[in-house]
Design a protein that fits this description.
With about 350 residues, the protein is of the alpha/beta class. It contains 16 helices and 11 strands. Strands 1-2-6-5-4-3-7-8-9 form a 9-stranded mixed beta sheet, sandwiched between helices. It is elongated and about 75 Å long.
Length: about 350
Amino acid sequence: MKTLRLRLAFAGLHPDRTRSLVAAHGLRETLAGLQAGRLKANERVQAAIAVPAGERTRQLEAMGVRALFCGDDDYPQHLAVLPDAPDVLFVRGRFPAEPGVAVVGARRSTNYGRRLAADYGSAIAAAGWPVVSGLARGIDGAAHRGTTSAGGVGVAVLGSGIDIMYPREHDELARLLIERGGAVVSESPPGTPPEGWRFPPRNRVISGLAGVVVVVEATVKGGALITAEAALRHGRQVFAVPGDVGRVTSEGCNLLIRDGAYPVLDEADLIESLELALGPRPRAGRPGEPPVLDEDEQRLVDLIAAGTDDGDRLIAEIGCSPGVALARLGSLEMRGVIAQDGPGRYVVATAGR
């Protein structure tokens, strides 16, 4: 059965049409009907599904790409349970076990929005949640740059084939996400160009891989609002950053807040809100495991060990925004690496030595 599912995935049809065809005709008859012309399909689709599944598998292996089928053990279960989950995902890298936090927004974003998205990505990563986004220009790319700078895990969902990076300048960012334990994923088969109609279905996958969707900047008709709408269908919480009334890139966020989205401000506020929504930070670690520290966390521990114990001084020394520094201090404390020795003063804990 998986051979038939893989052949149909390579047809690259709109996911809604794929589901309706299979529901109406069954998997085997859908393939036969498309190939024979009984069901409407262009020559590209007919040629694609005519290729044997074994050949497709060899092509994927040569590219370093896995095909994950809905229901497989390594297919994300929080996505698999949704009624619109992709039947097949093409993946480079590894999916984290737990749902992530999606950070999305406008491609044509402001410098302020990109800076905030990068700080959010860094703070979320420091707290231990995977960061999910679309790797597009603007807010998405900034969020994943923040993720990689913090040594965190990120998942990028593409609107093109997994072998076609869009935009091209994010190829290195995608490579970093994979190297640091995350994944790049697409529902579209390899070789698929970034056609405009593929991005709204892509956005539902971003939502499905997340436990919370955070919208940083969004226009009224932008893709970020499509992701937020998918999140509401999926039962995910939606957070939004309020902005100036009348600014185009704030209109979508302000409307989301008007309609019930939870407003979030700086990184510390975001992390506190995520803890309420998702529970304790994953970076608390497992008993008996040595703590794994990123570069900034190790620097904080070294500063504390050298006698810099005041929280304000640590924030000034570390060189990142106060919200990110506080998130890292909180993560270190939850993992038992440091402890508070009075209000705003820290010591290195025995467990972290």
